Amino acid sequence: MSNKEVKAALKSARDAIRNKEYKEALKHCKAVLKQEKNNYNAWVFIGLAAAELEQPDQAKGAYKKAIELEPNQLLAWQGLANLYEKPNQTDVKGDLADVYQKLLELYESGDKQKWCDVCNKLVELYHQEKKYLEVAETWQKLIRMKQEEGAEKAELHQLWKKMIQLLRDSSRNRDNMTGQLLLTAFEHALNSADVVPGEEHQNLYKDFILCLSQFPHEVARLEKACHDMMALYPTMSYPLEVLCLHFVNSGNLSEKALQCFSRLLEMDASSGPGIIGFGIKCLKEKKYKEAVKSLTEGLQKTNQCPAAWHYLAEAQMKIHEHRNAVLSCNQALEALGTPEGPNLRWKNLALQLKAETLIKIADADAAEEAIKALEQIVDASSDPVVSALRGQAYLNKGLMDQASKISQELLLSHPDLAEAHALEGFIHYSQKNYEQAEKSFLSAIEKKAGTAEYHLYLGLTYWFMSDETKKDKGKALTQFLKAAKLDSYLGSAFCYLGNYYRDIAGDKSRARGCYKKAFELDETDEESGTAAVNLSVELGDMDTALSILNEVTGKARPGTAKWAWLHRGLYYLRTGQPSQAVADLQAALRADPKDSNCWESLGEAYLNRGSYSTALKSFRKASELNPGLVYSIYKAAALEQILGKYENAIATYQQILKKTENYVPALKG
């Protein structure tokens, strides 16, 4: 076949392809290849025809042969790209990306529009594959090409915005380089915006700041962006809110941070981050109740802030709201999810604080939960304070051997650690080894004098050690006073001060004040509440006694606060107010239906009210629960007599006289 014939055969192949006669085209190409086996066009036409006949492997082979012959010719590369782009071609995305890269190289010095089209396709392909770094780098090449061609500012602005859009969902898979390219895109988009200040520019700035806040190491850039946006949009609270949350989450509570909180609250008094910031300021100033109030309010508005939940738990812990503090720690951990980087520190802090709080609750279930929390702390084994907490949790759970083992190990490895000596003290105290406990707590105080709990337990050690140490002003009393001074929310210190003034010093007035304070701090402390009421009655101050009882019963849920209902019921009984006495004594019995004395008092109240049948039932119930209550049995007999049930009355009187021969009321009855 001559050259002329080869050219004619190729022309026939091209015409056949144009007429969709692909098999005919293949015949012409094969004829050419018999003569010229390295004919580039023949291989390209075979690729084209085979692709249309849905013979992808043959098409791919033909294109690759053509590329091998002429690597820098466009036709075969274009054909291969078209083949790989077909919907029935799977698992070729990597190969297609390589083809697009080659086409970009071939188009670069020629057809700029086609270069841009291929570039768009390549970016789309990388985006589907979530190869965000390649997306960013390729799109930047497109923007550079447009800049070199002298594109308008508005067109470049749209291209930078498109790059932001492409990279926005890369946060989960984002490496540092991709992140930097995304931030650069934001900066270019902001600088190329048409209307400044304007709504679109404002929204773009908000997105930029939000994006920056996700980069822990871009602190300076975040602060600058917030300040720049505040200068452009002085009435907008958003940049200040982000800055405040950044300070909260970073644990940075510098003067600059405090100014930021104040400025935000001046601008918007209802701003969640501003109120949170104010709460943290109160916490640092030891205004714990105000801190709890502000942090709770702020978190109702901005609840996905782990650090703020931790600060709230810390404030609740300071005022001994232990169960609430545990809930706040749980909220912090939930908001953190599966943390990395700086958030891992918050997770460890929240777990440790949760464990400390659960140990203060001091029951076996809470101890078990504390142990689980401590197990989740990263690198917990290397932290002696965490080990001491674990020892306390074991002690609360009754696992004395494990607690003792930790105590001994800590005293050997960290002899200067206050927590190690305190743990030893708690163990001795629980075993009533008061002399050894005294030494341990004195050592702990020597290492860390400002811990109220150590002084309280040293005071308790002296209280139970002997009558001498209990009465010695320089022993128990001194330690309770120190504990109360160091922690004005420590209710148990005030309770024992009350015990001292009542039982040792005989100062009822001062004792009543201490019990009242203890009860105000912890309304579940029945011992202090009861003592405050009893001492008020003894001092002739019924107003104070009633105000305490009214406050407790006013807040009490059904079936709780028995002591308060009982005390007030007895007061009404003594002062001739039987109907009120009946209501309160019934409420006391809802809390404890098996209290025979309470049933007897209720019978008395019904009797005074003139409700004889109900009084009879109450006295009978009292004597059923406690057959030794002679008075209740006698009252039941007397009521049977009043109600005309003479035979029953006689039988009941005789029953009393069998047990107590000379019981005069029964003889008279």
Automatic annotation (TrEMBL):
Repeat (TPR) residue spans along the chain: 40-73, 562-595, 596-629
Residue ranges that the Swiss-Prot or TrEMBL entry lists as coiled coil: 3-39
PROSITE patterns, alphabetized: TPR, TPR_REGION
Entry keyword Cytoplasm: no
UniProtKB keywords: Coiled coil, Repeat, TPR repeat
GO BP terms: RNA catabolic process
GO cellular component labels: Ski complex
Keyword Ubl conjugation found: no
PANTHER family documented for this protein: SUPERKILLER 3 PROTEIN-RELATED (PTHR15704), SUPERKILLER COMPLEX PROTEIN 3 (PTHR15704:SF7)
Protein name: TTC37 protein
Organism in which the protein naturally occurs: Chaetorhynchus papuensis
Gene from which this protein is expressed: Ttc37
